[in-house]
Amino acid sequence: MIEYIVFFSFVDSITKEKDNIDKLFQFIGEIDSAISVASLKSGKLENCEPKFTKEKHIFTREIIHPLIENCVANDINLDNKSLLLTGSNMSGKTTFIRTIAINSILAQTLYVCFAKEYSAPFLKVYSSVRITDDLLEDTSYYLKEVLTIKELIEASKDESPCLFVLDEIFKGTNTIERISGGKAVLSFLNKENHIVLVSTHDIELTELLEKENYALHHFSENIENDELYFDHKLKAGKLKTRNAIKILELYKYPAEIITDARMTEKK
Fold this sequence. Notes:
CATH topology of the largest domain: Rossmann fold
Largest sheet: 6 strands, mixed
Order of helices and strands: HHEEEEHEEHEHEHEEEEHH
Radius of gyration: 24 Å
Number of domains: 2
Number of strands: 12
CATH class of the largest domain: Alpha Beta
Shape: elongated
CATH architecture of the largest domain: 3-Layer(aba) Sandwich
Strand content: 15-25%
Structural class: alpha/beta
CATH superfamily of the largest domain: P-loop containing nucleotide triphosphate hydrolases
Strand order of the largest sheet: 6-7-8-4-9-12
Distance between the termini: 92 Å
């Protein structure tokens, strides 16, 4: 029975040292985390220590997304405003609002930001970015959007500042109701010390929300040698160009389709 006696003696000794073992694990975990953060800060990507404020204000200088190779740096200064971001397809709208969100989380957890300067309040981050339908739960794309955004609406009742990040709000429904519903929701979320970052293709929202304390910015493109070129630089104001039909043309859609689309666009 020697093996059983040794085994239970071993279990008993571990049980007696349970608190010390737990402290050891905590200590090793803290050291491991500190090494990881130090490695991150000493890496090739430029980073800074964040500054925290109590005002409704986000300021960044040359902020980047840490997971995108050769990411184009951008600046943003939202003083008591939220952000309505328009832009061409593939220009970088979603990437930019994700960049702000991920740096906000890193600032509040690891005390590091991938930028030359970063200043913002402590923010609870909520997002509606990647929505999918769910056949197993019998939930359509639009209903999934409704349920996700309802969570943001409930969160906006919190007295603590929140950062709401939304990509193409209500794109699962028709244009008229998407714009009217989207405007109402975005106006509702942009209250107290909450900050909203929303990207959209709906230019109509720019006119409706500029009066609702939203700063307008956009990304745009150039066409060079029949190819789309994106500089991925954030610009002030609303988008004044479109490229969806041009992309169809560049990818050799039949001329009949392109002509029909452009004639319809002008109506």
